[in-house]
Write a structure and sequence with these properties.
The protein is of the alpha/beta class. The chain has helices at residues 2-33, 41-85, 92-107, 109-133, 141-183, 193-199, 204-241, 255-261, 263-272, 274-288, 342-350, 388-393, 400-409, 431-445, 461-474; strands at residues 87-88, 293-294, 307-314, 322-326, 330-335, 355-361, 375-377, 449-453, 479-483, 495-498. A 5-stranded parallel sheet has the order 7-8-9-5-10, sandwiched between helices. Helix 4 (109-133) packs antiparallel against helix 9 and helix 7 (204-241) runs antiparallel to helix 9 (263-272). It starts with a helix and ends in a 5-residue tail after the last strand. Bound molecules: adenosine-5'-triphosphate (ATP). The chain crosses the membrane at residues 40-60, 120-141, 147-166, 221-240. Residues 295-503 form the ABC transporter domain. Its main location: membrane.
Length: 503
């Protein structure tokens, strides 16, 4: 509904502009030949009223149109979030681009293109019909103007859409290359500046395609304006030399030439709207081809269940064949030298990586995929560039007291400002602090199963003792499996599983 009001307001805005042109051109001409008792008041009032309508409808068009644009953009973004929510992230930069600009480009088509074209078509039709009905000299020539506009617009659309296809491919390639370069950020300092520069993908071709689109729009506008002027010159020639002898004083003779003279003004916006259509098509295309692999989830697993592994292992380690039983609560240790496959095993248990062998929960196979609600704490917990609160809550609702409580339990009482910014551009946490922040997250999430990857790494003796006491207490009500090559003396486990490195 709002989209249609936007279009109507754009039409009103354009129509008022056109009416001002027609009335004022007639008024100027009429003044030149007006008799002494000519009433200047009425046309002046009409022009003023039209100007007010033009200004008012222009602002209203922006108000309604942009409000609608914002609503539509947020709706599209929510839909996109829903698609990405349970998906594996493969092309991070493409997903960011999709959220940041493709949804906006799709939403903007009503304001940017549809309303401009509707306004142009209606102005052309209304002016042609009005001039024909009023029998204004040369009225039929406005039809020729309409045909010229239509042909140039169609050609512009076709060329623009061809360029869009090229642009989508170029953008995809550029983003893939950028992802590769950004992925190697950790070793940039090891390279010379020349090596780094040589690696950077060039945006030159993208930029060239973008500018050729703008050039095309401008060229179309100039061709249209040129042909409109040519029509006007023909009319003037005809008026002077052939058809209208004896009618030289008729001020209505000027109406159609004035219309043609200013054709670029009242129809130019329709050409300028073309990039909005291109971006719309590009956005649609890009969202359609966005690589989204849905995350596979298992069937629902009881909140508290035993875990039985038989010949089980990560698909990345075909020789890994673990057979073990875990109660629904208690602390278990998975040990073994570095590279033995401890992290891979925990990730396979949680379903983060595909597995082989059998995984039973309470004696039932939940199927392949991620077990919802089970927590895997990475070896190096990810710290988001966000506030401490967001890093802890991950979008859930917790009170400040709950946050302070878990922070002091994991030995991070020094982080006492939930609004403090962490990560790049903010407070940088040490390796041990990251680890403890990860544990704090786990404590808030209340997961029935904790799979902790090297939780003691980077912690000093006192911190290890504090963490062991905490885990011991939490293991009373949940299953905790720790993968570690450090075995704190005070750790009391129900069982220990030692993995051997692959031969
Ligand atoms: N995505 C993967 N694809 C293929 N092989 C992998 C993958 N991830 C890890 N591996 C291999 O699996 C083996 C075990 O890795 P894993 O990280 O599980 O060892 P770990 O026992 O946790 O070692 P550490 O104690 O050093 O963390 C390694 O040889 C590694 O190369």
């Amino acid at each position: 509904m709002k989209a249609f009001i936007t279009v109507l307001l754009a039409v009103l805005h354009g129509g008022a502009g056109l009416a001002i042109l027609i009335v004022s051109s007639w008024f100027i001409a009429a003044c030149a030949v007006a008799p002494v008792n000519f009433n200047y008041m009425l046309p002046a009032v009409v022009i003023r009223a039209l100007a007010l309508i033009r200004i008012g409808s222009g602002y209203a068009h922006m108000w309604v149109g942009h409000k609608h644009l914002l609503q539509l953009t947020s709706l599209l973004r929510v839909q996109l979030f829903e698609r990405l929510f349970a998906a594996q992230i493969r092309q991070r930069s493409e997903e960011v681009e999709a959220l940041a600009s493709h949804t906006e480009a799709i939403a903007a088509v009503w304001v940017g293109w549809v309303s401009q074209q509707a306004s142009a078509v209606l102005m052309l039709v209304v002016s042609a019909v009005t001039l024909l009905v009023l029998d204004i000299p040369f009225a039929g020539w406005t039809i020729a103007l309409g045909v010229i506009w239509l042909v140039i617009m169609a050609a512009l659309c076709m060329q623009g859409l061809t360029l869009v296809k090229i642009q989508v491919l170029q953008e995809h390639e550029f983003r893939e290359q950028s992802d590769v370069v950004l992925g190697s950020v950790a070793i940039w300092h090891l390279k010379t500046v020349q090596e780094q520069l040589a690696q950077l993908p060039s945006a030159q071709t993208l930029w060239e395609t973008e500018t050729s689109q703008q050039r095309l729009t401008l060229q179309s506008l100039w061709v249209f304006q040129g042909l409109a002027w040519a029509l006007m010159l023909v009319i003037i020639y005809l008026a002077i030399h052939t058809q209208l002898e004896g009618e030289g004083g008729n001020p209505l003779l000027l109406v159609v030439p004035m219309l043609l003279l200013s054709a670029g003004d009242w129809l130019g916006r329709s050409f300028n709207g073309q990039p909005a259509l291109n971006r719309y098509v590009q956005g649609k295309q890009a969202l359609k081809t966005l690589p989204v692999d849905p995350l596979q989830l298992t069937d629902a697993v009881p909140l508290s269940s035993t875990l039985t592994l038989t010949g089980f292992g990560s698909v990345n380690l075909p020789e890994q064949k673990v057979t073990a039983e875990f109660d629904a609560s208690g602390l278990y240790l998975v040990g073994g030298p570095s590279g033995a496959g401890k992290s891979q095993l925990l990730q396979a248990v949680s379903g983060l990586v595909a597995c082989h062998g059998q995984r039973l929960c309470d004696g039932n196979a939940p199927g392949d995929g991620l077990i919802e609600g089970w927590l895997y704490l990475e070896q190096q917990p990810v710290i988001l560039a966000a506030t401490l609160r967001h890093n802890l809550t991950l979008g859930r609702d917790f009170s400040a007291t709950q946050l302070n409580d878990v922070l002091s339990k994991v030995g991070l009482a020094q982080l006492n400002d939930p609004g403090e910014w962490l990560g790049p551009g903010g407070r940088v946490l040490s390796g041990g602090e990251r680890k403890r922040l990860g544990i704090a997250r786990a404590m808030l999430i209340q997961s029935p199963v904790w799979l902790l990857d090297e939780p003691f790494e980077g912690l000093d003796g006192a911190a290890v003792s504090q963490l062991v006491a905490l885990l011991q207490q939490k293991a009373a009500t949940r299953l905790i499996i720790i993968a570690s090559h450090v075995y704190p003396a005070e750790l009391q486990c129900k069982d220990t599983l030692i993995l051997n490195p692959p031969s």
